[in-house]
Amino acid sequence: MATPEFILRLRKHVGHELLWLTGVTGVVVDPDDRVLLHQRADDGCWAPPGGILEPGEQPAAALAREVAEETGVHVVPERVACIVTEQPWTYSNGDVVQILDITFRCRPSGGEIRLDRDESLDAGWFAPDELPEMSEALLRRVRLAREERGEAWYQPYGE
């Protein structure tokens, strides 16, 4: 994944120290109940599309931008499905991040799968019972976005 310029500038000051970032994830569900996933270029893993908010960017707009960049599919965010803070993560270069993720359930509104190879090696639509292997955190985001619920899920206080 291309590292946003503002993060590269921050890293010049803080080195590999932990950065607190806000991320967005899009669980895009089509009329046939299939989920859009892409195979990330940075680690080869399958995941819903998403990324990091740029300074001043609104979460839903950032999410629509990220999905289009990574997959070529245009989306309309419909609701927030969950808000979670993930465990700190260390990249292979030693950079440490911790991400507050806002996951949106989205519907496709146009475009078609197109890979840029900078961020995605592959992409496709998957039936819920045919999802490729993903982390438990990502599977939870997909499950929560597919549920019919009126409120966003969050980690209950004290757990």
Automatic annotation (TrEMBL):
Keyword terms, alphabetized: Hydrolase
Single annotated GO MF: hydrolase activity
InterPro entries in UniProt: Nudix_hydrolase, NUDIX_hydrolase-like_dom_sf, NUDIX_hydrolase_CS, NUDIX_hydrolase_dom
PROSITE patterns reported for this sequence: NUDIX, NUDIX_BOX
UniProt KW Lipid biosynthesis keyword: no
One of the Pfam families matching this protein, by short name: NUDIX
Needed cofactors: Mg(2+)
Stretches assigned to the Nudix hydrolase domain: 19-148
PANTHER family per UniProt: ADP-RIBOSE PYROPHOSPHATASE YJHB-RELATED (PTHR43046:SF16), GDP-MANNOSE MANNOSYL HYDROLASE (PTHR43046)
Family under the similarity heading: Belongs to the Nudix hydrolase family.
Protein name: NUDIX domain-containing protein
Organism this protein belongs to: Nocardiopsis gilva YIM 90087
Taxonomic lineage from the root: Bacteria, Bacillati, Actinomycetota, Actinomycetes, Streptosporangiales
